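Teaching note: in complex prediction, the entire set of molecules is handled at once rather than each chain in isolation. The prompt given to students was simply: 'Predict the structure of this complex.' The entities are:
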Amino acid sequence: MGNLETDAAAPFEQSYATTNGNGKPANPAMEEEEDHETLMQRKFSAPAYTEIKTRKNAAKVSSAHRLKNIANGGYHPAKQLHLNGHAKTAVSDREFKSSQADGVLSPEQEHYQKSSFEEVPLHTACLTYLGFYLLMILGYINQLLFVPKVAKEKGRDGYVALYDAFESFYSRYVYRRIRDCWNRPICSVPGDELTLKDRVTNDYGWSFKFTGTQTRCLNLGSYNYLGFASSTGTCADNSEATARQLGLAYCSSRSELGETQLLADLERQTARYFGVEDAIVFGMGFATNALNLPSLLSPGCLVVSDEKNHASIILGLRLSGATIKVFKHNNMRDLDRVLRQAVVYGNPKAGGKPWKKIMIIVEGVFSMEGSIVRLPEVIALKKKYKAYLYLDEAHSVGAMGPNGGGVTDYFRADAKDVDILMGTFTKSFGSAGGYIAGSKKLIDFLRANSHAHCYASSISPPIAQQIYTSMRIIMGEDGTDIGRQKINQLARNARYFRKRLAQIGVITYGHEDSPVVPMLVYLFSKIGAVVRTLTTRHIAVVGAGFPATPIMEGRIRFCLSAAHTKEQLDYALDVIDEISDDFGLKYSRKPKDLNPIEY
Amino acid sequence: MLDNIIDFASYWWFRYLMVTELYMVEKWERVTIHVIFLTLFCIFWYFNYSVLLSFTGNLFGFVPDVLPGVKQGQGIKVT
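The expected output is the structure of the full assembly:
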């Protein structure tokens, strides 16, 4: 149970041979053989953790089953069959329909049919709150009795606290206890697999020490949707060539010395990618939202924002000074109500005069919920009330739609119906930065008024080149169908993974075509236990709890990628099946489909 | 046999710690919470035994024989 405190020393040397990615002895063939043998004999254990001992018999049976699988040539991350970062595309003759709306049912019916959602069981809700209060009480007792091991300001008598008290209390006494499950340092490309740098804590998360070992893990935590995050291949080669030719940075903004042909080409390419008139690119995705929204909105404007919108949007809206009204997540009736009231009653601060403008802000794929915006209905409402629509496609661009064009492509909607198309290059394109695409007028306005354009440093040339090359591959302009294969592979992975999880009996949220799959575990302890246990089985995942989610909805978020193969997903799903039995994660009370899931 | 029982008990102990969030706290904190739990349980038990039982006994007009220490009319009187 106490994973962290006891196992600092003993298993390191043992597991070094099985888990260490680098530092191999001189004779690799011999090492491989030995590796294989140790894998057969010994339980896999990542150096920083020991496996939680649960049901002995179940563990025996399953590990025997797993070992048999590996012996038969099955997948295991520690075997390192291939180099990291290579996108492997599925070879299949069977016709597969990539992710797109069917259009047979009405948009509303289709949304409900394809979305998975379940209410939290009552006893779990009660226990979650009870546990949270216990943690709070223990935190206060702890704070009362001991001085926290943090730096303190001295000579500041009479000053009020500079940092928010509850926030620091929360991070010290709740988050700190399972801090080893977050911000884990890696030392490889986050491709389909990654290498975790092992660390241990001897004081319950106050401080960490590196052990000097590494753990090779299957990566289910990166937003590498199309598998372009790779240190080899066309993208990497082109970026390297550009870095040699143009250098690493211009050290200036676009308005001054940072403008180049490459960025102009990238903008034209982006506009073509979405089928709109023009586009503008920025060096940072977060800033694209946070700094462009204030230039489009001002006090006296009304923003109707989805409740699950990202922090960057919320920050941008607050900076703009516009009035914000929130509607329930993906609830079109609520959106309709809010819009109707806004149009009928006007701006109460201006004595009921009409709002300067009304803007609806939604995301394409919501990263915490795994849900997809109901775009056709939003567009219909936007047209009905003559509001503007700002669509943040950070997670959907590349990952959704038969051509990777995002949710507009997925729903086969006209991109010109969306007034402002925003997105990032950080996820699907394996690079960094953001864009805004739309009409020429909009983009010209932003070029003149956007803080992110006027003051921020322009995109680094190799980073721009990575976006440019990956975009060309997705569009098929490089003369291959690699992009198409990747899009299909991702859609296939997403559906398969979700269906198998539903079969296992865990609760997942979101749309069946969304590559973000949140699995609800509700309790903090369960987040910690699942992340730690999956690490011992060489699977790296990301947990999310309060304050990123509501208190009651702690979750594990799987992010699928086109780089994952069926074998990798099968391995992960088998392990998840086993641990969800052990940890009691099978909350779902829906009827299960017991037929084998076709990949 | 004994092994099985120990396994079973330790597994469900682990599940209990997990749902009460005590899995992720330090050992002394775990002990503290259990002491608080036990104290609360004892207080409730004593309250039920001494007050609630005679109260309900008065209400229904009987005292069970299993409690020799409590006589009819003891405890809180309902007038």
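Point out the following to students. The first strand of chain A starts at residue 115 and ends at 116. Chain A touches chain B through 29 residues (CB under 8 Å).
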